[in-house]
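hey can u run this one w/ fe (ii) ion bound, need the structure tokens asap thx
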Amino acid sequence: MSDLAFRNARIVLGDEIIDGSLAIANGSISDIAAGASALGDDLDGDYLIAGLVELHTDHLENHYRPRPMVFWDPMAALHAHDAQIAGSGITTVFDAVRIGSDTDMPDMAPHVGKLTGAIAAASAAGWLRAEHFVHLRCELPSHDVIGQFETYATLPLTRLASMMDHTPGQRQFRSLDAYKSFYQTGRTAEELERYIADRMDDHARYSAPHRTHIAGRARELGLALASHDDASIEQVEQSVQDGVAIAEFPTTLEAAAAAHDAGLAILMGAPNVVRGKSHSGNISATDLVRAGLLDVLSSDYVPFALLQAAFALPQRLEGFTLPAALAMVSGNPARAAGLDDRGEIAPGKRADLVRVRLVGDIPVVRGVWRQGQRVS
Ligand SMILES: [Fe+2]
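ok here u go:
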């Protein structure tokens, strides 16, 4: 006996699309059948896809700090973020919470506490539409990143840590000119030079020992570990040595190819796919898909981009299928983060489902279910 059923749906499975029906029992998918059925809600020929899995969104932070000097109530920010996430078809989200203070954010610790506290309280109370986990974005050159890591890495909802280093002249910003145009807002040329010099000093002093500490502790704690903005083969080799499973935003083709050869899951931004280029002038995610080097897409700074990119890729790349594109936003990120109960429409998997109709180029979300419960 099913709790809920859908019929007349275009169901996207792991490697094919069928027109048929799907039944849910006890929050899991219990049956999938091709062809007409008299049972269940009529989905009017819309797509039914697996709920999206998002590993790296900074959108919670953007709701919490909507302007540089404005801090919103963390619980209100979380609910606004959660509604947008679920409304974008995302049923599992790893909220990126940056740890480590710098001159822009001289005391990060209380902010991290408020955000992770809100996620834990709202999750425990069952208030959230999507299932939320914490992704600690560890800024390695920060003087206090280790203390914050030790405080928040052991929270039950913390499942993923990434090691970042946004020092000018490195990784994401190998070109100092690109760095200057990204960070110059509100600074005079002199202030910017001073800021860059301070950043380089912090890098020289802290990055290497902090990397060793965090990689070691992540392994002990069983956290999935990600590298960030690997630009060279040497940096990929370091990531492999650190036990990294996910290479976030490799910035060059050679780094992406090396990470792929080493068996790392390569993650790139969905906005990069939607826009056709990187916002900081690095490699195009679509080119990586073309080269067979991309495993995971992340919505990064636009939640809706995840679904949009997955539907755009098969339209842009001949021979690239919708099941393959959707795997990059559901099954692949689920596996990379160690979640094997979701990410695919298959019997026994969680009934995390999204009803989608393609209107022109835009995949319109018409319904979202998490473990068989309607959440959007
Ligand atoms: Fe970055």
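The first strand starts at residue 4 and ends at 12. anyway lmk if its weird
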